[in-house]
């Protein structure tokens, strides 16, 4: 099968297109023929080696973290899926590889594709959908009537998180460039701050939740817009010790995480607010719940561009340049 492979960590290098063997299908696995995949900021961070301490892939590694496709084979222990099912997924972190014609995944990481979406639309959802769900529903426990600040509203996570937060009944503030203000308002944002002309810290007060996806300076300011007891969930770091425990990382990595997050945790404690880092996990059951919301019309995908499979490197470059509004998708079949 054809696949795009990372051979060495590099900021300027490209993935190599290669012919590789089809994946081995385990007892609890489904083999999916990939119809579409999507590019995430995570893919760029893996490519540059930024995450190699916590995601120590043995190179060469097939890249890709989102998939929509059709089940073509099932292991003997599979009970939830059958050949011919249309599915979507974010594979487990140790089994990524959706920039390929086929991928084998544990059935627990997979869900039936939303019936109202085509393959390209469905492929845009898993990673950002699970990230927003685990941040806002699991960690934050966001409730009706609360206020949430979602940074970078026009990005992949932001476009999904705004819609999810509105569905949950929250008041939503976000940041966007002037060109994207109307788009994020249509998604449900109540307050939109043009980050090129305004400082969100001058506008926002007493927020219950912040979903942080930006740099350390933005994180520090974000802690100050929370009310006492509020929660900041960061998807851009710094990782905290709980994250190391969650991933089962060695003790010395836990110590590194403790040092890296010390400043953020100390500032949060001083302000009487919470700080936690989220690295989303694969979860088929949550994708099933997300599919129900999509089919009910509560959330819709936001896609910037669709690239052909042969142009996978161009799609990755486009995301790395920071120009994408919503998701960038790759059509494989």
Automatic annotation (TrEMBL):
Q: Which InterPro entries match?
A: ADH-like_N, ER, GroES-like_sf, NAD(P)-bd_dom_sf, YIM1/Zinc_Alcohol_DH_Fams
Domain named Enoyl reductase (ER): residues: 13-330
Q: Which residues form a coiled coil?
A: none
Q: Which SUPFAM superfamilies match?
A: GroES-like (SSF50129), NAD(P)-binding Rossmann-fold domains (SSF51735)
Q: Which residues cross the membrane?
A: none
Which top-rank group of organisms is this from? Bacteria
What is this protein called in UniProt?
NADP-dependent oxidoreductase
């Amino acid at each position: 099968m054809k696949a795009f492979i990372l051979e060495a960590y590099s900021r300027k290098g490209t993935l190599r297109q290669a012919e590789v063997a089809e994946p081995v299908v385990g007892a609890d696995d489904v083999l999916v023929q990939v119809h579409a995949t999507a590019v995430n900021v995570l893919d760029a961070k893996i490519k540059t080696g930024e995450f190699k301490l916590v995601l120590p892939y043995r190179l060469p590694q097939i890249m890709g973290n989102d998939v929509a496709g059709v089940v073509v084979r099932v292991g003997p222990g599979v009970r939830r899926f059958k050949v011919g099912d249309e599915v979507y997924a974010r594979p487990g972190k140790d089994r990524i590889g959706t920039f390929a014609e086929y991928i084998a995944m544990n059935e627990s990481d997979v869900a039936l594709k939303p019936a109202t979406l085509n393959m390209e639309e469905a492929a845009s959802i898993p990673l950002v959908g699970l990230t927003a769900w685990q941040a806002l529903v699991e960690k934050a426990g966001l409730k009706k009537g609360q206020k949430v600040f979602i940074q970078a509203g026009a990005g992949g996570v932001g476009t999904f998180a705004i819609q999810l937060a509105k569905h949950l009944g929250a008041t939503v503030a976000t940041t966007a460039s002037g060109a994207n203000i109307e788009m994020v308002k249509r998604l449900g944002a109540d307050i939109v701050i043009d980050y090129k002309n305004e400082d969100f810290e001058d506008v926002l007060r007493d927020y219950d939740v912040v979903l942080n996806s930006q740099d350390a300076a933005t994180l520090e300011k974000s802690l100050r817009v929370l009310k006492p007891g509020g929660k900041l969930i960061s998807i851009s770091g710094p990782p905290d010790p709980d994250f190391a425990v969650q991933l089962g990382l060695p003790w010395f990595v836990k110590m590194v995480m403790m040092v890296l997050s010390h400043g953020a945790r100390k500032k949060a404690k001083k302000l009487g607010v919470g700080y936690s880092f989220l690295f989303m996990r694969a979860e088929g059951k949550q994708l099933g719940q997300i599919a129900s919301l999509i089919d009910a019309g509560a959330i819709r995908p936001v896609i910037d561009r669709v690239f052909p499979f042969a142009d996978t490197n161009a799609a990755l470059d486009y995301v790395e340049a920071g120009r994408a509004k919503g998701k960038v998708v790759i059509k494989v079949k």
